[in-house]
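Exercise: predict the fold of this chain.
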Amino acid sequence: MRAGNERSEDPMSMNSGHNGWRYGIALGSAALFFVSALFPTAAGLTGDPGSLPRWWGTADVALAFVLGLLAFVLALITQNRISESARQSTYRTYRALTHGILVLLIVFFLAGSRIHWTQCATGFAWRTWLLLYSLPAWFTLLKSR
């Protein structure tokens, strides 16, 4: 019989003693999302994408790959374990992020000709999809601490 204050030994359990590294993965993935978003932003704002350093494209693809792997890890860790609190936080975040569509529309109308959309739209689109897809898992890990 187990005492009430002991944690489960199952390493995949959200109540196990591994919450520190899970929380670290959640924070690391959030930071990587932010850094990764800088690449399409810079590509869209630069007048000549060829003026970016040679390593720029390689770094963008490498970070995108790592970001995709982290999203996969988030999904694996939290598979079938999304908490109700994370669901509620995800819903509130979805509601707030939908305003971003309107903001992008305003930016398109006000500064559309100064932004090179062909250089940044694809990067923003897949990152946004990945963010929205990963939010329930991310909130679950963040709140598991």
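Check your answer against the key: Confidence is low (pLDDT under 50) at residues 1-12.
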